[in-house]
Amino acid sequence: MDIVVLAGGIGGARFLLGVRALIEQIGGSVTAIINIGDDVTLHGLRICPDLDSVMYTLGGGADPVRGWGRADETWTVKEELAAYGAEPEWFGLGDRDVATHLVRTRMLDAGYPLSAVTEALCARWQPGIRLLPASDDRVETHAIVDDGGADDSGAGDVALHFQEWWVRHHGELPAKRFVFAGAETAKPAAGVLDAIAAADLVLLAPSNPVVSIAPILGVHEIWTALVEGPAPVIGLSPIIGGAPVRGMADKCLATVGVPCTAAGVGGLYGSRRDGGVLDGWLVDTTDAGTAVEGVPVHETPLLMTDVAATLAMVRVAVTAAGLVT
Ligand code: GDP
Ligand code: CA
Q1: Ligand 1 center to residue 10 CA distance, Å?
Q2: pLDDT at position 151, please?
Q3: Which DSSP letter does residue 149 get?
Q4: pLDDT band at 152 (very low <50, low <70, confident <90, very high)
Q5: Separation of 26 CA from ligand 2 center, angstroms?
Q6: Nearest CA to ligand 1 atom 24
Q7: For residues 228 and 192, what is the distance between their CA atoms, to the nearest angstrom?
Q8: At 295, which helix (H) or strand (E)?
Q9: Gap between the Cα atoms of 7 and 126, Å rounded
Q10: Which residue is closest in CA terms to ligand 1's atom 17?
Q11: Ligand 2 centroid vs 268 CA: distance in angstroms?
């Protein structure tokens, strides 16, 4: 079975451990199309947080407690930068992690597309799945923050890079909306459209719907390939019992005016029959009774406590697609 997964960083990485486990059992392939909206250049280094979270996690090199960055990390570079007063100081840049960014930046500067750079980095990590950035072009998530002025003309609004809004300000500055700069003209990365066309199943990981999945779906040709493609599209809710399992998806959903519920996120993705993308929606058993117009809803435990639990979720998603494992 050939499975395509749309995913963000930490939630996406955990989910992909379960998808990889299924394919190890039944055979086939996994292609993960990863959000690049969080990518940022700091201290001259190109940093791709979601690609790295997935690569390190599947390659066995992620810090299990933080969920991002490298295991056995040290922070000398960060301390030395701080000693120089080099901004920004709020971004966690570990020493081991820096090596990844140095290799990536050097290859990008030499003219390789991000998809080729990712493949080269994965030669070391052997994630056991194919990792693709959503695009080789720039797609950058910005939070549009109110200037606090009395008029709502938008004249004084400020666009913050997502990392600044999320990491520096902890998502606490009220955002009016998110913009995926570049998404409309960005082309899918090499391999993305072929993978979707060849897929037996497409899964939307239980990643942040607003700032992880939406920037991927915002690449026009990816959206078209999914909604017009042959493979069933099944999504899994990142919201359980009205709250994100971890992270700040509640703040992001509030910004786009979507209730922080499994039904709200399912409705945001929408039924493929009425202009959305979903053919099926998985919600946690806590959210039994959830209804999404035009979308069959399936209830099953959605806590990714370990690989076995995640594998069980993936099996339910496969069944929901009308496929057998
Ligand atoms: P990020 O890019 O690192 O923020 O990670 P993602 O966007 O891939 O994943 C973040 C989302 O994963 C959050 O909205 C969480 O609610 C969700 N999440 C984390 N752990 C779990 C879990 O065990 N089960 C489910 N259903 N969602 C989870
Ligand atoms: Ca992310």
Answers
A1: 6
A2: 60
A3: -
A4: low
A5: 30
A6: 303
A7: 15
A8: none
A9: 18
A10: 238
A11: 19
Count how many Cα atoms sit within 13 Å of the Cα of residue 306 in the half-sphere of its side chain. Answer: 1
SS3 label, residue 152:
coil
Nearest CA to ligand 1 atom 21: 245
Which ligand 1 atom is nearest residue 240's CA? 26
Judged against a pLDDT cut of 70, whether residue 42 lies above it is answered with yes
DSSP label of 256: T
Q: Identify whether the C-beta of residue 79 lies closer than 8 Å to the C-beta of residue 130.
A: no
pLDDT higher than threshold 80 for residue 148:
no
| Interval 11-35 mean pLDDT | 98
Q: Is the pTM of this model over 0.85?
A: yes
State the virtual CA torsion across 12, 16, 17, 19 in degrees, nearest 10.
150
Report how far residue 51's alpha carbon sits from residue 33's, in angstroms, rounded to the nearest whole number: 9
Q: Measured between alpha carbons, how far is 294 from 38 in angstroms, rounded to an integer?
A: 32
Which tokens sit at 272?
A: 């493929």
Give pLDDT tens digits for 215-256: 999 999 999 999 999 999 999 999 999 999 998 899 999 999
Compute how many other C-beta atoms are within 10 angstroms of the C-beta atom of residue 215. 29
Q: Which amino acid is present at 211? A: V
pLDDT tens by residue, 92-118: 899 999 999 999 999 999 999 999 999
Q: How many whole angstroms from 225 Cα to the centroid of ligand 1?
A: 25
- Tell me the percentage of the chain whose pLDDT exceeds 90: 90
**Per the structure block, which two tokens stand in for 47?**
């940093």
Asked whether the beta carbons of 178 and 142 are under 8 A apart, the reply is yes
Cα separations in angstroms, 88 against 44, 70, 170:
12, 20, 15
| pLDDT classification of 150: cutoffs 50, 70, 90 | low
Write out residues with Cβ below 6 Å of ligand 1.
7-12, 50, 53, 206-208, 212, 237-238, 240, 244-247, 249, 302-304
Is the per-residue pLDDT at 149 higher than 80? no
